[in-house]
């Protein structure tokens, strides 16, 4: 089973063992000399992509495919190679596309079509028919593109010279997305307890999700987790407390000999138990609920926050869809500046001159998005009826960000994204005992929120500082699900029509 994120980001910033194959299409028509040049040029491009700092995975050259059999075989091999997260295709010359039908039909890995040309510039003084015959992707790629469209296959199309910075960035972004998708295949998520009673949007069809997305979600009674928590040794707890002391500013009651020191130990034990449970079960994320904490002393706060920071997906109240989404976002953003966290739209500042959303959760915001050193605090929690939970409290820096929500519309999944501008807090919030972030939704507060409500977006989201709407659109394309963007150009009339038209499109799927 792949576990890309948990493999260290290696030399050159590559994500785990992830590999993309670079496949060039041609045909035998041109003779050996042209095919030799095609292979040489393809190797040069594959090597450059592999070495590009913008592309966080290995890019491996594959020999030019020139027949239906070679194409079929390379697609079958890509399907079977567990390290291959996707393939990039390019038609340096003309590759008659009927040759691609059977290969594309079976290809299960994400596809990027790089519409490039080996030569950047036309050699005005020297250009002759030999040059034209070799550098003909302008029409060779159209023939290939027709077949991919004819087969109704989603793919990423990237246009431009292969040394162009923007092209490398886009390929790198797609590779991140493909890595996130790859990580979902066979992934396991665990829910402790069921969905929060009566809540609709966080629930959904887990059978359809496993079929569509490749990950499974299964439930364990909280007692199974409590057993593991209770088996954690005092020495392990003491060692983790040291980490807390080194990493965070501890509130007065939590320091050595503080009145609530025992609660910090309980929190550490919960974190260690959860981590052991996730590791033993090879889980990539989890959800819990304050309604089912039998045998637990506290609702996991700092535990969920730190496990998210370690790469696990998480969402509260049994929200398995958001937990899985947060995990995928973490894989996609691996190694980038900024973080990805579980988030909830909590409360509003409705000043007409400066409307804002305050995002937070009862406890569980990932410290990967923290501005500065978090403080480790303990406060009462109004619900759940347990002891006061320990949590990390911090602000979040301003800057571009987005919220993503995966909802189950009954006949399909919808991935909804709202681009936002996070705003550095202008006020101290001395009595708010949770991590929080302020943002302005695009295109503006009222339009953005009305659009979100119309599109059925959840109150739970994955909040990202380092992914783009394009990344998530590519992710939805790979998953073959609906994607709805609320961004700088959204207007409600258009959005409402888009949602109506999508109803028809997905009825026909
Ligand atoms: Mn919630």
Provide a descriptive summary of the structure in words.
- Mean pLDDT is 95; it is low at 6-11.
- α6 (165-184) packs across α14 (469-479) and α9 (234-247) crosses α10 (261-280).
- The chain is built from 15 helices and 19 strands.
- It is elongated and about 85 Å long.
- The chain has 509 residues and is an alpha/beta fold.
- The strands form four sheets. A six-stranded antiparallel β-barrel has the order 11-12-17-16-15-18. A five-stranded parallel beta sheet has the order 2-1-3-4-5, sandwiched between helices. A four-stranded parallel beta sheet has the order 7-6-9-10, sandwiched between helices.
- The two termini are 30 Å apart.
- Bound molecules: manganese (II) ion.
- Manganese (II) ion binds at residues 316-317, 344, 361, 460.
The helix count comes to 15
Globally, the shape reads elongated
β-strand percent reads: 15-25%
**Helix content percent band:** 25-40%
Mean pLDDT: 95
Largest sheet: 6 strands, antiparallel, barrel
Using only C-alpha atoms, the radius of gyration works out to: 25 Å
* End-to-end gap: 30 Å
Q: Would you report the number of β strands?
A: 19
Query: Which class of secondary structure composition applies to the elements?
Result: alpha/beta
Main-sheet strand order equals: 11-12-17-16-15-18
Low-confidence runs: 6-11
Small-molecule binders: manganese (II) ion
């Amino acid at each position: 089973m792949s576990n890309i994120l948990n493999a260290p980001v290696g030399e050159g910033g590559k994500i785990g063992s992830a590999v993309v194959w670079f496949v060039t299409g041609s045909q035998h028509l041109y003779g050996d000399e042209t095919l030799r040049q095609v292979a040489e040029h393809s190797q040069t491009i594959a090597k450059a992509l592999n070495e590009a700092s913008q592309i966080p995975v290995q890019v491996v050259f594959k020999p030019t495919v020139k027949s239906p059999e070679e194409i079929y075989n390379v697609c079958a091999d890509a399907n079977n190679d567990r390290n291959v997260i996707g393939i990039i295709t390019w038609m340096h010359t003309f590759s008659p596309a009927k040759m691609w039908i059977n290969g594309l039909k079976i290809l299960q890995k994400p596809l990027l079509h790089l519409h490039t040309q080996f030569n950047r510039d036309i050699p005005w003084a020297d250009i002759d028919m030999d040059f034209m015959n070799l550098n003909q992707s302008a029409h060779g790629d159209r023939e290939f593109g027709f077949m991919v469209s004819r087969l109704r296959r989603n793919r990423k199309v990237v246009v431009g010279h292969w040394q162009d910075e923007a092209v490398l960035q886009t390929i790198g972004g797609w590779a991140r997305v493909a890595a996130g998708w790859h990580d979902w295949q066979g992934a396991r998520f665990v829910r402790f307890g069921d969905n929060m009673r009566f809540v609709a949007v966080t629930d959904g069809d887990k059978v359809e999700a496993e079929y569509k997305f490749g990950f499974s979600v299964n439930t364990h009674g909280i007692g199974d987790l409590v057993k593991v928590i209770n088996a954690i040794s005092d020495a392990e707890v003491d060692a983790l407390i040291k980490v807390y002391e080194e990493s965070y500013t501890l509130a007065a009651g939590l320091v050595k000999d503080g009145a609530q020191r025992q609660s910090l130990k309980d929190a550490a034990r919960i974190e260690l138990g959860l981590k052991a449970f996730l590791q033993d079960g090879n889980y990539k994320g989890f959800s819990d609920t304050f309604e089912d904490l039998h045998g637990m002393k506290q609702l996991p706060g700092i535990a969920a926050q730190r496990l998210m920071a370690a790469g696990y997906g998480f969402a509260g109240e049994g929200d398995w869809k958001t937990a899985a989404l947060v995990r995928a976002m973490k894989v996609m953003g691996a190694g980038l500046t900024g973080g990805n966290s579980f988030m909830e739209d909590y409360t509003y500042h409705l000043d007409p001159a400066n409307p804002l959303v305050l995002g937070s959760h009862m406890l569980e915001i990932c410290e990967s998005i923290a501005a500065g050193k978090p403080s480790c605090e303990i406060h009462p929690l109004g619900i759940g009826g347990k002891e006061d939970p320990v949590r990390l409290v911090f602000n979040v820096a301003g800057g571009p960000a987005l919220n993503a929500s995966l909802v189950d519309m009954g006949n399909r999944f919808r991935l909804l994204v709202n681009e936002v501008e996070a705003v550095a807090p202008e006020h101290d919030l001395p009595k708010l005992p949770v991590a929080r972030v302020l943002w302005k939704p695009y295109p503006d507060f009222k339009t953005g929120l009305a659009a979100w409500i119309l599109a059925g977006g959840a109150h739970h989201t994955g909040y990202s500082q380092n992914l783009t709407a394009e990344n998530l659109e590519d992710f939805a394309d790979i998953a073959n699900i609906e994607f709805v963007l609320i961004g700088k150009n959204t207007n409600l009339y258009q959005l409402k029509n888009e949602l109506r038209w999508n109803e028809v499109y997905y009825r026909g799927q």
